[in-house]
Amino acid sequence: MAMDSQPAASPPPGGASPEIGPGASGGSASSDPGPTPEAKADKSTYASVFLATFSTVFLAELGDKTQLAALLLSAESGRPVIVFLGASLALICSSLVGVLMGRWLARFIPAQMLERLAGILMVALGLWLGRQAVLSFLPPTPLVPLP
Questions:
Q1: Rounded average pLDDT per 10-residue block, the chain, 147 residues
Q2: Within 4-110, where are the H helices?
Q3: How far apart are CA 89 and CA 125, in angstroms?
Q4: Could you say which DSSP state residue 18 is in?
Q5: Alpha-carbon torsion 53, 55, 58, 64, what sign?
Q6: From CA 59, how far away is CA 49, in angstroms rounded?
Q7: Residue 117 belongs to what H/E stretch?
């Protein structure tokens, strides 16, 4: 009667489980099983967050005052590369502020509430800017001296 040097609970070398056997996986016992479902989910989550962030910021910045300012600065200075580098660094820094503020606020406010507050803020800013635009088209009212 021979004694096995491995405990019964640990799998034998080569990665095959004792119940299934080495040939049950369809390949050799030393083949790489590939990424786990959790690793695949992490990669898809990374890609979806990255693409959502890129497309949202890219579309939000198209035709924005920042882009128009960069256009004018490039035309005036004649140094488009330097204007591009300056505008890129400014966007990176302002995005960093937003990311850090979002991370900090997420500790105190649930994500759904934060999303609602951001939506309310965007609507309020839109209404305020719309009011400013309407007022700029109206003729100025003359100041009437008080008696």
A1: 46 46 46 60 79 88 85 93 94 93 91 91 92 86 76
A2: 37-61, 65-77, 80-106
A3: 25
A4: T
A5: negative
A6: 15
A7: helix 111-137
pLDDT of residue 2: 46
pLDDT for res 1: 46
* The length of the chain, given as a count of residues: 147
- pLDDT at site 4: 46
What does each C-alpha distance from 32 to 9, 15, 60 come to in angstroms?
22, 9, 44
What value, to the nearest 5°, has the Cα angle with vertex 87 and ends 81 and 89? Answer: 100
HSE-CB of 85 using CA atoms within 13 angstroms = 3
User: Could you tell me if 29 and 15 are in contact, meaning their C-beta atoms sit under 8 angstroms apart?
Assistant: yes
- C-alpha dihedral over 94, 97, 98, 100, to 10 degrees? 150
Q: What is residue 31's three-state secondary structure?
A: coil
Q: What pLDDT, on the 0 to 100 scale, is given for residue 18?
A: 44
CB 70 within 8 A of CB 87: yes
Q: Rounded distance, CA 108 to CA 102, Å? A: 10
Q: How far apart are CA 103 and CA 85, in angstroms?
A: 27
